[in-house]
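Researcher: Good morning. I'm working through a list of sequences from a screen, and I'd like to move beyond sequence-only analysis. For each chain I'm collecting a predicted structure so we can compare shapes side by side. This is the next one on the list. No need for commentary yet; just the structure.
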Amino acid sequence: MELTTEWITYSSGRHAALSVRPTAAESTPLPIVVVVQEAWGVDAYIQDIAARLATAGYAVMAPDLYWSDGERPEALTPDRTAAVKRLLDVAPGVWSDAAQRDAALQELPEDEREPVAETLTELAASLANLDVYTGTLRAAVAYALEQPFTRTQSLGSIGFCVGGALVGRLASIEPRMGCGVIFYGAPPPAEQRAGITCPLLGLYGGEDDRITSQVPEFAASLEALGKQFEYHVYPGAPHAFFNDTRASYRVDASRNAWAQTLGFLARHLVP
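Model: Good morning. Structure tokens for this chain:
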């Protein structure tokens, strides 16, 4: 399928996003899906997810959360975040274990250690307060709904890891969302959940205890609030099991999760 793919800016150039849609449907208003990145930004994997969704018949926006007023900070450029992702595949504990982090950094070539350490620090700081990104995402929603190639009031969001956590937070403050898909993202804080107005789908790894252990309480709280939430836990699957560029990828879990995602989006976004 031929796709129209372009980088666009919005909010007077303060924010940037990847826009992807099927070229053959240029004259047909499409339902919108806002794709929310992992910690690594709108990298090749997120761009591929956007293309897959566009091929399924959606107009897709993937905001670059690190873009601000015309650029990314030097420590968060694509090359720098990719270097940290490679390190994490070799030493998964670098986020939480200082000893593992120091040991892994010492294994790098000397000229790479300082930049990677700086990017690790910058990523940790930038992700410490996820609510700083909800304004960027709400601006993306507003921009998408104004475009002639999108179907007004037919918008969903899908996010991965930190992006999944942001989908839950966005759903609590954005009444124009028609649905949200959370791939192994932490639940939003309890005080935000009453604001959720759209159905949510959660997809989690059975071996991702840090995240998945929170899901039963999240589900119970949403049920008590009268919210719609369905979720699936894939036995044996680790965190980031859907990311086919990483060692964590699990093909069986991913196959089912993608089928669940497309079905959920179609039920809630397509008349």
